[in-house]
Amino acid sequence: MSEWLKAYRENHADFDQLSAIGTLPDNPFLAFSEWFDAAVQAQEREANACVLSTCTAELQAHSRILYLKELLDNQFIFYTNYLSQKGQALGANPKASLLFFWPQLMRQVRIEGTVTPIEASISDAYFATRPRESQIGAWASQQSEALTDRQELIARFEAYDAQFPAIVPRPPHWGGYALDAQYLEFWQGQPSRLHERRAYIRHQNQWQSKLLNP
Question: Exactly one of 45, 64, 150, 193 is catalytic; which is it?
Fold first, then answer.
């Protein structure tokens, strides 16, 4: 053993500890739930925030941060305006990825798959739980479209607030998407860039996993 590695082992007691990746369940969704729960318990700020990356029909990639709302029937659910830039991109190319990063735990999870709109009844149920201001905002914002000035947006907000004095219905252009995963990759940061990676790949209805070099 080299003197450098010997000294490194002595100064990094966790170097030879059991792999965090190696203890993950064989089911990738259970693995994600374990890591997500750990992120919440570690008080990672905005633990359910993730980067959604899409690609247009012209092969231009776009990324933005949004919130994962739930893992439902092994599908990752998020909500947005269907007429937005992301909605139009998903309409042209339903392939997308989600990326979670939890810096305190030095962990990230990358998820790739196909995105489809969820049932209207599920979107209705979730929309009904949102604060009234968020409900009105979903009507007022012509998401991703050019805006003359902020007063234009406020005027639309006030108009819809007056139009719906009680219950605010869900706009037909707003709702949920479900990402049906084909690939999940778990990354655990380690000293000296000897990071750990484990990928889960779906072949038909079976999941296989393998370790990857960092």
Answer: 193
